[in-house]
Design goal:
By secondary structure, this protein is mainly beta. The protein has helices at 2-26, 154-157; strands at residues 42-43, 58-64, 74-76, 79-86, 89-96, 101-109, 123-125, 128-132, 137-142, 148-153, 172-174, 177-180, 189-193, 199-203, 216-218, 225-230, 244-252, 258-266, 276-278, 281-286, 291-298, 303-310, 321-323, 326-330, 337-341, 347-351, 357-362, 365-370, 374-379, 386-392, 405-407, 410-415, 418-423. A hairpin with a 2-residue loop joins strand 4 (79-86) and strand 5.
């Protein structure tokens, strides 16, 4: 009997040790980019709560004083990074995983003209931080020292054109190449060396301005493809509600060659939604009654064709999530929550709830942060709208626009001045 208890004790100790190793092995990644590993809003988490308490999940910590901004957190190497603006100063905040502020550092200037604050989230890659302000300057910092390695004024150097509400692009890094979209007539899109900022290639592309969008890399075709939105040109003397021919543009990631465009019109040239890619098909959505399109890639990525259009689901800047054969997301001017058939584009149902809202996905559930100030847990169900839990985000200031993040069982919500960490595991 004594040997039995000794054996049980040893097994228990080993079990705890292995359990701790499992927790530690989750750790934090070395690299980080906006909206997750594949830039699609899907976070590979497990064991998350399927229902929240009535007043919401446990608030682990909060920080007030970020300044104005709409950026999400970036997490790497046991650190949390987020930016904000005070007056016209761009500030980088660095926290440990328990929410303790380690340092705040002024990086440069930021947008204080309209809808003030930071737009582009920190990109972390191979020991470097990449921060893009709405004035068009890209900063590269050393992750350990936060010293500046290089910076580029993309609008000045590449003859770009800033936008009514400032640049909002989140940098895309593939291998040693960093892709950005100055939106100039000659330098429409550029590829830079991520270590030095040196120009690798530039493309005349469509020759039209960028349009608040972040690019997406597609690497499973014969040709590596970068796809993004480009703004159309409003007809001269056209009224406020005139339709504008915006573009989805595809570039050869290796050379900058413009492979193809698809004209996707709406009643504005504001197209902040990054395209979504799955299994040879690109989903593009925009607000202002533009709607949602599914585009099929052909000839190894060199050509494309439109499969369907849904004119109702005009998602503007909040992302769409594909679960199984269905799309979930909110409208913009059409203020409904939608479920749409991925294969046909048919609206399965729409309900006047939550919209507009941004959405991410983890462990079988949708996390929907509404502009109304509610954080919502929604079960993706093609048969009916199923709101499981909801709570009010009472901290923070101004618009509820920052996209949420999930990492190691914690939901990070940024609302203007405030950053909150909720335990959802």
């Amino acid at each position: 009997m004594k040997k039995f208890f000794i054996k049980v004790f040893i097994i228990s100790i080993l079990g705890c040790f292995i359990s701790n190793l499992t927790v530690l092995s989750q750790g934090t990644p070395k690299n980080w980019q906006w909206r997750g590993e594949n830039r699609n809003g899907v976070y590979n988490e497990t064991g998350l709560l399927k229902v929240w308490p009535t007043d919401g999940p446990q608030l682990l910590w909060k920080f007030d004083g970020l300044g104005e901004g709409h950026t999400s957190v970036a997490i790497a190497n046991e650190k949390i990074y987020v930016t904000g603006m005070h007056d016209d100063r761009l500030i980088l905040y660095l926290f440990d995983m328990a929410g303790k502020l380690i340092i705040e550092k002024e990086i440069g200037k930021e947008w204080n003209t309209s809808w003030n604050g930071t737009r582009s989230s920190v990109c972390i890659n191979d020991g470097k931080l990449y921060i893009f302000n709405a004035l068009g300057t890209l900063f590269c910092l050393d992750e350990k020292t936060l010293n500046e390695i290089w910076k580029k004024d993309l609008l000045t150097e590449f003859d770009g054109r800033n936008l009514m509400f400032g640049m909002t692009e989140n940098p895309l890094i593939v291998g040693d190449t960093l892709f950005m979209t100055p939106g100039g007539e000659k330098f429409n899109m550029v590829a830079l060396n991520k270590n030095t900022g040196a120009l690798i290639w530039s493309s005349t592309g469509t020759g039209t301005p960028t349009t608040y969008c972040s690019p997406l890399f597609i690497g499973d075709q014969e040709v590596p493809v970068i796809v993004t939105w480009m703004a159309g040109v409003k007809p001269e003397n056209a009224g406020r509600d005139a339709w504008i021919d915006n573009y989805i543009a595809a570039f050869n990631a290796g050379t900058g060659e413009l492979l193809w465009t698809q004209t996707l019109p709406s009643q504005n040239d504001i197209n902040p939604n990054m395209p979504l890619y799955m299994e040879g098909k690109i989903l593009a959505a925009t607000g202002y009654r533009g709607g949602t399109w599914l585009i099929n890639l052909k000839n190894g990525g060199r050509e494309s064709e439109i499969v369907w259009k849904n004119s109702e689901m005009d998602n503007q800047m909040h992302g769409l999530i594909k679960v199984g054969d269905y799309l979930y997301g909110s409208g913009h001017q059409n203020r409904n929550w939608f479920c749409v058939d991925w294969k046909t584009g048919t609206t399965i149902y729409k309900v006047p709830d939550l919209a507009p809202a941004n959405v991410i996905y983890a462990d079988g559930m949708l996390y929907v942060y509404s502009e109304k100030g509610t954080m919502n847990l929604v079960k993706p169900n093609p048969e009916k709208f199923e709101l499981v839990s909801s709570f009010n985000v009472t901290l923070g200031t101004n618009q509820h626009w920052a996209h949420t993040v999930i990492h190691n069982g914690i939901l990070y919500v940024r609302h203007g001045e405030a950053l909150m960490a909720f335990k959802i595991k």
